[in-house]
Design goal:
Rossmann fold, globular, alpha/beta, 46% helix, five-stranded parallel β-sheet, single chain
């Protein structure tokens, strides 16, 4: 599986580029973005929220899907986007993702689902089948592109984020 990872990453770039450009147009006007994952996909959500904050100046927060139900879910409305990152092995959390997704749609929030090949879920972007150990590496690629294109939509330079220092002292 490790030997195939570079090919999987290249495939993800090809699969996600057009989708991500469209999503960037929508997110550029959002007040808040919640990135929701579970297990290793929560790590991808953390990276995605950081990249969106740094490059686009959008308030983005990552939560584990179970944690989101206890407070943050009350913030959902038409000016808030939710991006669901469903891991390749969601276990019993698939029902939680579906429930929160239904609540997001009912609130008028913009909901986007990113999933993996082989899962029986309706997704906006389906990532190629990858070993569970490498899922996070595949999941972060669309979000790096998303941060880049969202910054461009907001007329920001993604290579020069505001007040960001390369070295922490």
């Amino acid at each position: 599986e490790l030997a195939r990872l570079p090919d999987s990453l290249a495939e993800v770039v090809g699969l996600s580029e057009g989708f991500v450009r469209g999503l960037a147009q929508e997110l550029a006007g959002m007040r808040h973005v919640f990135l929701l994952g579970y297990g290793p996909s929560y790590i991808a959500a953390l990276e995605a929220s950081l990249k969106l904050k740094e490059t686009s100046g959008i308030h983005a927060e990552a939560y584990s899907i179970r944690e989101f139900r206890h407070g943050p879910i009350s913030l959902l409305d038409k000016d808030v986007a939710c991006v669901f990152i469903i891991p390749p092995e969601p276990g019993d959390c698939l029902e939680v993702f579906e429930g929160v997704g239904a609540e997001a749609e009912a609130s008028g929030s913009h909901a986007t689902v990113i999933s993996h090949k082989g899962l029986d879920v309706e997704a906006d972007l389906v990532l190629p089948g990858t070993a569970h150990a490498f899922a996070t590496a595949v999941e972060v690629v669309p979000f790096q592109l998303l941060a880049y294109y969202t910054a461009l939509e907001k007329s920001l330079d993604p290579d020069r984020p505001r007040r960001l220092r390369k070295v922490v002292q």
